[in-house]
Amino acid sequence: MRPLWRCRRCGCPWPCSPARLALLAEYRDARSSLAVYLALALADALDDLHRLGLDTGGVHARFLGWLRARSEPPRGRDDLPWHDARR
Questions:
Q1: Using CA atoms, how far apart are residues 15 and 60, in angstroms rounded to an integer?
Q2: Contact yes or no for 85/78 (Cβ under 8 A)
Q3: What is the pTM of this model?
C-alpha cells in the first residue's frame, strides 16, 4: 500500500470500494474511530506522496470525502429541492 497508497488486492487508489466496505464493517460501532484512522492515514499519504513528488490533489476526498456521519441519511431523489413527489 505505502508509499503509493494503492490497494494490495486490486491496485486501485486506497481506500478503494472494497476497502471502504471492509472499513465500514470493521468500524461499524466506532464511526469516530474510523474517521480518526482515516485522518491519520491521510496525513501519512500526503507525506509519502509529497516526498515522491506525486500529485496530492483529491487525496482528502479519497480518504475522508466518502465518510458520512451516521446520523446523516443517504440523499435520494426525493431529497432534492426540485423533485416533485406528486409525479
A1: 11
A2: yes
A3: 0.75
